[in-house]
Amino acid sequence: MTRTVVFTATAILIGQSLSSCAAFSPAASTSSFSFALNDAVNTPVEPPLNPLLSQIKPSKTVEVFSLVKQMEAEGETVTSLCVGEPDFAPPQCVLDAATAAMNGGQTRYTAVTGTADLRKAIAEDLKSRKGVEYNPVTEIVVGNGAKQCVYQGLLAACGAGDEVVVPAPYWPSYPEMALLVGASPVILETSVDDGYLINPDALDKCLEEHPKAKVLMLCNPSNPTGGVHSTELLTQIAKVLEKYPNVVILADEIYERLVYTDDGQCTSFASLPGMFSRTITINGFSKSHAMTGFRLGYLAAPERFAKATSVLQGQITSCASSVSQAAGVSALNDVDDSWLENNVVIMKEKRDYVLQELAKMDGVSVSVPPNGAFYVLPDVSKYYNGDDTQLCLDLLKEKKLALVPGESFGAPGTVRISYATSMEELETAMTKLREFLESL
Ligand code: PMP
């Protein structure tokens, strides 16, 4: 009864405060009131959710990770190779910059597109390392992680009735984000023979068959395959795209600092002739500087895209954290290249170890050794009749080893291993996986 009184009072207050507003509808206060009455007799009204949600799958990585956290909370020790985040700490200067920002009063909203200092540092970094020139004032939008930037980029480039070409295996958020913006994902299969990279002829055919395609998702280096498209291949892809001028390329280059080829290079798609005006580049600090929890990423694009995404961001989150942005400035201005290069060396050692151990396992194959990011996607389809989800569930239950089923990346019959963890953890993981598979 007390609750009903509280709700009634709230309804009256809402009614009073809103009644001066032109858009006020009496129905609003009535529905608050009827909710209170219904609640009081224990038959709560359940207004429907957005129908769009019935199409959106939750992230499998997040699901597995939540399961791991739950098991750990129950006292179990789990070996987790499911999440894509480096196991090392950000550089000390980055942490110091964050502390100094907090203590120095940088605790307020910043400009929607980010602080001038950070945008300047990003523009300089892209120019010096990637050979692409962006105006820091009008062509860079800092957001709360690259994930948000991908979403806003998609939202700016396409909408209802459009199609988004997503090469598979893919980062699971791409098709779901395409659906969220009202577009339809079109999956472009890649083959093991092509190293899971985009085949220009297959892309041509796909775009010809899908005139509604407005965006091509280009994840380079790739999560989950670790594949790196060479400059030559990117140039061939660009050549195909010349035939389809309406297609925007959303180049997600968040792993571009983690490349294990001899030259260590990852060409920015926007730097290719003719591609700047139609490319939205995504990058951030999560993978390169181990700053996942800072939630800091950015989008770099010609002004009309950047402006559109800043309008969206202004309505969605206003701006990225001021403290994280100060840390981001330090990441770009103060961190020595040797810190990043050293991480590449360490990560390459881990990759090599995992590949070497997987090669010893019966029925497991890695036809495409990953050249970037920190993932391996071995084929385990000989087990469980290719049911990778069940394999991962049993592996977690029986061996307390968490991997992500390949099915969620559009790669059934595989599992994704993130090797961005300690060598000790990797050794335990490889032993567990070998023992598990041998027991089948
Ligand atoms: N793109 C890809 C391909 C990723 O793998 C991730 C993180 N898993 C992101 C974007 C998002 O990164 P951030 O932490 O900056 O949001």
TrEMBL record:
GO terms for biological process: amino acid metabolic process. Residues 1-23 form the signal peptide. One of its GO terms (molecular function) is aspartate-prephenate aminotransferase activity. The keyword Transferase applies. InterPro entries: Aminotransferase_I/II_large, AspAT/PAT-like, NHTrfase_class1_PyrdxlP-BS, PyrdxlP-dep_Trfase, PyrdxlP-dep_Trfase_major, PyrdxlP-dep_Trfase_small. PROSITE patterns: AA_TRANSFER_CLASS_1 (PS00105), PROKAR_LIPOPROTEIN (PS51257). The keyword Signal applies. Its cofactor is pyridoxal 5'-phosphate. Keywords: Aminotransferase, Pyridoxal phosphate, Signal, Transferase. It comes from the Eukaryota. Residues 77-433 form the Aminotransferase class I/classII large domain. Its EC number is 2.6.1.1. Gene3D superfamilies: Aspartate Aminotransferase, domain 1, Type I PLP-dependent aspartate aminotransferase-like (Major domain). Belongs to the class-I pyridoxal-phosphate-dependent aminotransferase family. This is Aspartate aminotransferase.
